[in-house]
Amino acid sequence: MVDLALTNGTVVTMNDRREVIKNGAVTIEGNKISDVGKTDEIKEKHEIDRELDCRDKLILPGFVDSHVHLGQALIRACADDMSLVPWLNERVLPLQGIGYQEGDGKLSAKLCALEMIKSGTTTFIEALLHGRYIEEMIEGIVESGMRGAISKSIMNRPGYADQPEAIPECMREDGEKTLKQTEKLIDKWHGEANNRIHIWYGLRTPGGATVDFYRQAVRRAKEHGTGITIHLAEVKEDVRYMKKEFNMTPMEFMEHCNIVGRNVTYAHGVWLPEEDYKRIKKNRCTVSHNPASNLKLGSGIAPVPEMLDAGVNVALGCDGGPSNDNYDMIREMKLAALIHKGRLLDPTVIPAETTLEMATVNGAKATLWRDNIGRIEPEKLADLIVVNLNKPHSAPVRNPISNLVYAAHEGNVETTIIDGNIIMENRQMKNLNEEKILNKVKKLAPEIDQRLDLKIDTRWPTK
């Protein structure tokens, strides 16, 4: 008996042959995909407990957001039109470090999860959670039904690049304490919720840790068999710092600190030099491309076509509420597909199909679930989305991949399934109370600003 069958849809499998099956069906038993094929054939083979008709809709693997800040959803739009370092140290970190009180972190995580689920993201890599309220954020994700790698902040210096005191006092952490906290989180949470939760090491950007400390953290991550993520070459200052202090390129420095391997994801990579691409490929690391965040902060545009040509695994990420303002991977796909055409004056680079790969199979490779998500195949985990392109802004459909990337947005996502469970159906949330979350957010946001005596409003006169 098949628990659930998605029928009559266009199945975008993302398998090795990238097959697209019209009038296709996907069956789910427990938390896994059990069969994929033509609807008529599937119905002949299986007795179905529940059928979800996906006529004129796409059935896709859920998106994998490879760079997320759960704790920043609640401070969306707090620091517009600021460059990275003052943006971080004057607004983003103080608002989380001083502005947040007990319960606020969980609300931020739920708000973030709500948006991700409604826009088709089923799996994410959280980049850098701090010690305060981290467990309540994990609890929020467990309750949401999402699959996520939660990275604990790892640091033993308060610096950022060549600014030795850049990190505000409220967000500074003791090095050994961060390692012990991470191990406690691993013991308690790694593999929980039917293996939907993983705990990673979120290494601070170079300047925030010593070489020996980086090596120690990497060693512990390997001992625990878990992942590592780090912001790398996001701004020019990062590259200048590594060159000045160590006479190394970013990837030479990563190799020097042993921050390499299949379990390592570098966020941004905007200023990676060409000579580093081969090193990234050789070490089987992933680069998370965050075009909206990099543009809004004026950091630059990562050389993604060049990295892809060099064989680098490039995934896609939305980053955080204050740097992107959205956690919508469909919007991010469109931006990633467009900006490189403009940068290189070449409309053939980064076609729609490539950006969909970045959002699914490439993102999956960055995670410890790499062999089980990102594709629609038997025995893969049932992390699926149903997308309706029959909307005024996304019809008519000629090439469904093109329509998805260039014409759709989060409102096209109708159903989200994670670990075999329907988390959203017909845009109605199952695990999270959307109205309750939004009402709490509306009330709490001004309170958080007031705790730091911040008044954030339009530059225009408001009566």
UniProtKB/TrEMBL annotation:
What keywords does the record list, in alphabetical order?
Hydrolase
Ranges for the Amidohydrolase-related domain?
A: 59-422
GO molecular function terms listed in the Swiss-Prot or TrEMBL record: hydrolase activity, acting on carbon-nitrogen (but not peptide) bonds
Superkingdom of this protein's organism: Archaea
Classification via Pfam families: Amidohydro_1 (PF01979)
Q: Known PANTHER family for this protein?
A: AMIDOHYDROLASE-RELATED DOMAIN-CONTAINING PROTEIN (PTHR43794:SF11), AMINOHYDROLASE SSNA-RELATED (PTHR43794)
Q: What is this protein called?
A: Amidohydrolase-related domain-containing protein
Q: Which organism is it from?
A: candidate division MSBL1 archaeon SCGC-AAA259I14
